[in-house]
Hints:
Blueprint: H1 19-44, H2 49-61, H3 64-89, H4 97-114, H5 120-149, H6 153-176, E1 191-193, E2 196-198, H7 205-209, H8 224-242, H9 244-254, H10 256-261, H11 266-282, H12 284-293, H13 304-314, H14 319-342, H15 349-376
Antiparallel strand pairs: 1-2
Helix pairs in contact: 1-2, 1-15, 2-3, 2-14, 3-8, 3-11, 3-13, 3-14, 4-5, 4-6, 4-11, 4-12, 4-13, 5-6, 5-11, 5-12, 8-9, 8-14, 9-11, 13-14, 14-15
Amino acid sequence: xxxxxxxxxxxxxxxxxxxxxxxxxxxxxxxxxxxxxxxxxxxxxxxxxxxxxxxxxxxxxxxxxxxxxxxxxxxxxxxxxxxxxxxxxxxxxxxxxxxxxxxxxxxxxxxxxxxxxxxxxxxxxxxxxxxxxxxxxxxxxxxxxxxxxxxxxxxxxxxxxxxxxxxxxxxxxxxxxxxxxxxxxxxxxxxxxxxxxxxxxxxxxxxxxxxxxxxxxxxxxxxxxxxxxxxxxxxxxxxxxxxxxxxxxxxxxxxxxxxxxxxxxxxxxxxxxxxxxxxxxxxxxxxxxxxxxxxxxxxxxxxxxxxxxxxxxxxxxxxxxxxxxxxxxxxxxxxxxxxxxxxxxxxxxxxxxxxxxxxxxxxxxxxxxxxxxxxxxxxx
Length: 380
């Protein structure tokens, strides 16, 4: 008798498999359900859910300012989401992206402060390389401890976060801060002179789009780092799914024992995954120092490293999913101030609650999927 059960093979009416769509369906349902619960919370505190969501969409999509700031807020989350996703693919949980991006941001500023600015383009390139290398090395230490000694990466990466903050705070306070400055920040690596930035920096989107006749507001901080984040999405996809090294890394994440039996080195791939993960997290320093503040600023990260875990989880550890998840969290960040100002009883903390509900629903998806499998005989 011919088996009539559904399969993941392409339908004669559809030119693609339904499996990727199913993978996207659960996070989408989680987001929609979270927005519904968020609306109920708004109603319970005495405000209008329709007003809140009108403020959300209008502040994000209603102007070039909204779009620009949303993309700017999403940029560091793309980097950290990709960082966490790469580690996840190897069966690792990188909790240390916060420390890695902190060390990388300081290294970026250090290169800009130390090297002469006779060729600012070369210094900019070297500062970008420093961010990637320092972030990767800072993550590589827990990778080596995991691969060689079995130390759990969650513990070691958390500890490395504290060490990173301590080192960078000390160096900034006693060696690289302007005397008398009450703010814990380094000297600037680029400054305005005659209306133009002088020193190593990344151009903002206004400078790129103006020659094309697009009047993108000059005041918006969105810069080339966003394009770099898009490039990283493509490169991470190619690495993980189109190369031998990516295949081996994913094989270790699926089953280390089976991978080792097939001749794949678990030790090498754990270290490689952590190095790449840290390098991606370190790129946040490029956006922060070279594209925005032009200095290292203490406390610049709005928990980018930890939010990256939620972004990777919502994005199914896939670069495309990470990109859209980062956009969602960037949009929530952008709308929080408007919701706080233009509503009576809803504060910007509502956005944090909504983010937590999204994470909770995505985490519970494994439970729902498992129950559905048992009910439907393993066909979900």
